[in-house]
Amino acid sequence: ARPEGLEDEDAGEKRREAMSARAAPIGARLSCDYDAIKGVANRAAAPLMKLHIPKLPKKLENLLEDDSEISEKSLLTQDILTTGTKVVATIGPACQDVDTICQMIKNGMSCARLDLTNGDVEFHARTIKNVMQASMKVQQMVAIMVDTAGPEIFVKSGDPETYENGWPKWGKATSVKMGQTVTITDLKTAKFSAQRWPVTYEHFAKQCKVGDHITVGRYLSTGMEGTSVTLEVTQIIDDHDVQCVAMNDAELNGLITLFIKGCSSFADLVLERDEETKSLPIMTARDLEILKVLSQIKYQGSDYIDFLSLSYCSNKEQIIEARQTLDTLGLSNAKILAKVESRKALSNFESILNAADGMIISRGNLGIDVDVEMFPMIQKALVQACNAAGKPVLTTRVVDSMTSSPRPTRAEATDISNAVIDGVDGIILGAETLRGLFPVLCVKTVLLCAKQAETIFDNNQHFNSVLKRTAFLSQLESMASSTVRVADKIQAALIVVVTGSGRTARFVAKYRPDVPVIALTVPRIRADASNRWHYSGRHQARQSMLVRGLYPMLAMGTTDEGGILEDCVERAALLGIARPSENIVILYNPPGSEVPVIKLVAMDKFGKRMDQRIQSMLDVTAASGRLGGSSGSESSLEGGQFP
């Protein structure tokens, strides 16, 4: 017979093993070794990750109270500010005018994305000016992201028929039928025809082998437009020609791109001595030319580019090179977001994450490069790693059908919700707003889907999970995590973080409080070596627009500490996110102090200004202890005392 208590001992041992696994470094937990995941023989006996089941609403029927269509629902500023997930919209011909951009901002667009793959420099310069004009018109801050073309391979199907306001208008290239034979060539002198497709990469044929799958289609093809075809390589004819057979029907038009599944050599920056294996640069000459022009668009000495999205990033050296390029162009304030688009990037993911300022899961190409059944698990692993590192992570391709439909599919709505519950910071819209029929409605739909998903996001579970995954807490991060715990224990309505660079505010957002976090940026004026004055603060504020739960605000009116905080609280009250008698937690560095301070204030009974009652952090700590203990992170403070 089994000895009494043996089952409990076994259960305890399993719990200890599970805790050890959770405490392992990110690299040990992150399931980005695609080949190991795919191979059954190498698969670990234990599951790769344990997904937490989120809490359900108290009354499920509450979700059915409002049965109006999304287009009929009105959004207030308060609705946008209380939705943590960010929406990034790609600006194209469908939405470039100022009035449309204004409507997109009012419906939840946090960041405008410029895609350098298409459009001339005048088009993108006009986009920046229109976005800034719209931002000032609606009095809401909007970040600007520039997405490079990078080492993209194109089919040379001919020149555009016309240009309309700097945007190329392409005609139909060709039709392809399933079973049709097509030859892809990298000869520079080759001409496009229905049977022979020249490409822009001069060493393309040497990267192919029999059995490879090649996806050819319209740039940002949604998969529902019938504008992409999958080819299977059947023969390597010579050093320049590759024979393929079509696996489906398609109508090819527009700017046509090409992607080889499982082949990332052309996107690898490491240059071989052999000229024939030389790779494409991470930033093309066209990228650099347009960036140089855009960097000259300034306001009070400050440029408008907040983020650079680095396409086809596959190693950290590419990020270092891109940073040097930005510095040379005078764009040192811009942060770099690395796009994960290939298995090569997955194999180097941890080093890329450490070098970049944020990550973009580019699901279009990455979804082609990995097996479809593995993609959801890989996405969850990537999001978890970014959350643990405290860096923003965004995902693409969520509502493809809204390019031509006013309503997403059920699968797409579920996809948005699952991404939000997994922990993404934002959703990037591509073709849906660039050329789609419903750009404003698309932004609104994604925001409302995200808002509903956030109601069942388990903030406490996320807090504990991130805390366990963080091996060491600096003093600053310790205070940030404590701020989140205090806000939770006293049921605060708002957290205000006074910051210069935005780093402290991002630490707070890392722990996902269930209340809005205002990143109050204090502007500064400085002189450069040529004695020219520069105004700083706008970049740092706008860059908070991609971090989930953060809402930037520029301090104004006075340099007095109390006046700055009171002004911020009054503006929050006007926005509807701070009501009468509600508590507010403030994290800031007092003048002359080397450590941050947590203060607790309250709105007055009229809900118009800050109450003068202020408690010290010591009293708050004692109160939180009576309410159920602290986060356990305060122990990293020096001396164990609170300032």
Please render the helix and strand layout as text.
Blueprint lengths: L5 H17 L3 H4 L4 H5 L38 H5 L4 E5 L7 H9 L2 E7 L5 H18 L4 E5 L5 E2 L7 E3 L2 E3 L2 E5 L4 E5 L10 E3 L14 E6 L9 E9 L4 E6 L3 E4 L2 E5 L24 H10 L3 E2 L2 E2 L3 E4 L5 H13 L6 E6 L2 H5 L1 H7 L2 E4 L1 H7 L5 H15 L3 E4 L13 H13 L3 E4 L1 H4 L4 H16 L4 H11 L5 H15 L4 E6 L3 H8 L6 E5 L2 E4 L5 E4 L1 H5 L7 E5 L6 H15 L7 E6 L8 E6 L14 H10 L17
Parallel strand pairs: 1-2, 1-21, 2-3, 3-17, 8-9, 17-18, 18-19, 19-20, 20-21, 22-23, 22-27, 23-26
Antiparallel strand pairs: 4-14, 5-6, 7-13, 8-12, 10-11, 10-14, 11-12, 15-16, 24-25, 27-28
Helix pairs in contact: 5-6, 5-15, 6-7, 10-12, 13-15, 17-18
Task: Give a written overview of the molecule.
The chain is of the alpha/beta class. It is 33% helix and 20% strand. The protein has 21 helices and 28 strands. The protein has an 8-stranded parallel beta barrel with strand order 1-2-3-17-18-19-20-21, surrounded by 8 helices. A 7-stranded mixed sheet has the order 4-14-10-11-12-8-9, with helices on one face. Helix 6 (121-138) runs parallel beside helix 7 (285-294). The longest helix has 18 residues, at 121-138. It is elongated. The N and C termini lie far apart (59 Å). Residues 1-7, 21-29, 43-51, 265-277 and 613-643 have low confidence and may be disordered.
